Amino acid sequence: MSATFLGLPPFPEAARAAVGDSRTRQNLHKATRTIRGKRDAVVGELGEDWQRLRSEGERVKTHTLRHLDHYLEQLEESVQRAGGTVHWAADAAEANAIVTRLVHETGEREVVKVKSMATQEIELNNALEAAGITAYETDLAELIVQLGEDLPSHILVPAIHLGRAQIREVFLRQMAEWGVPAPPGLTDDPRALAEAARVHLRELFLRAKVAVSGANFAVADSGTLVVLESEGNGRMCLTLPETLISVVGIEKIVPAWSDLEVFMQLLPRSSTGERMNPYTSTWTGVTPGDGPQNFHLVLLDNGRTDVLADTVGRQALRCIRCSACLNICPVYERTGGHAYGSVYPGPIGAILTPQLQGMSSETDKALPYASSLCGACYDVCPVAIDIPEVLVHLREQVARGPGHTGEKAVMAGADAVFGSARALDAVQRAAGAVGGNLPRHLPGMAGKWTDTRDLPDVPGQSFRQWWNKRDQREGEGR
Ligand code: SF4
Question: In what residue span(s) does the 4Fe-4S ferredoxin-type domain sit (predicted)?
Answer without folding.
Answer: 316-385
